[in-house]
Amino acid sequence: MPGNNFNPTPYRQLLLHPGLGEEERALVRELLEKAEQISAENLRLRKTIQRLSSANSPKMSSKLRDALYE
Q1: CB neighbours of 42 closer than 8 A, spacing ≥ 6?
Q2: Contact indicator for 35, 4 with CB cutoff of 8 Å
Q3: Where in this chain does the entry annotate a coiled-coil region (predicted)?
Q4: How far apart are alpha carbons 33 and 36 in whole angstroms?
């Protein structure tokens, strides 16, 4: 499963830019928070999908299992 690809570091550094006004900083902060929330939710959903899909599919075919137990 791919990891969480969102890297907030460049966006946090943008907040330190001297030419950025307070309103723009607030917007960047808001977008950054939302992106982090969405990224975390995406990761949780991926894990859930992987868990559910692996739980619903048998690990080995019944014919193979029967042959191994003989």
Answers
A1: 4
A2: no
A3: 28-55
A4: 5
Six-digit token string for 9? 């570091």
Closest C-alpha to 11, from 42, 3, 24, 38: 24
Sequence letter at residue 13: Q
At 39 the pLDDT is 92
Length of the chain: 70
Backbone angles phi, psi at 4, to 5 degrees: -75, 115
Q: Which of 39, 50, 32 is nearest to 5 (CA)?
A: 39
Distance from C-alpha of 11 to C-alpha of 9, rounded to nearest angstrom? 5
Type of residue at 54: S
